[in-house]
Design goal:
Blueprint lengths: L59 H11 L3 H14 L2 H21 L3 H21 L2 E2 L2 E2 H13 L23
Antiparallel strand pairs: 1-2
Helix pairs in contact: 1-2, 2-3, 3-4, 4-5
Length: 178
Amino acid sequence: MGQPDLCDPAWPRYLPDLALPPYRHLPGQTPHPHTHPLGHRFSLVGPELRLTDENWPTHRAYLAGVDLYNRAFWWEAHEAWEGPWRVSAPECRRHLQGLVQLAAALIKWHQGNQRGMEKLARSSRALLEVVAAEHPHHLGMDLASLLERVGAFFSAPPAPENTNANQLPLLRLGFGNV
């Protein structure tokens, strides 16, 4: 299975100055970004900053993760969100963990690992549903809409080779009204 080519170049970038890695890491298929000599070494260097309801519109790691995810850099998105996940309050941690597991589910889907995809998709949904029950709009996301798109995609996932970016549960951020 090759590199996922599942991004819509017209989809908005939330951090347009972010240089994207030269390849998408797929565990077991591409050089590990940090431990392999040929790894792309992509990372967001900087202090781990708590993600909050107030700072998400300017939180570089959060926005970078969304951009990476939306361009099928699912492993790299998980890496971007890991730092804030470690230091944020429980509700933001659940939100980030739900996104991390969603990204991991898409990696498993792309690699044809049905069981792993289903397990990760379920756990992602469960985490995001907990957050959505209290805050339907959280960290710039309409979680009800995201959960609908996640459910629709994973209930009958198309074959990766027959998929376009608009079929994926992409992440949309609303500034000001969400």
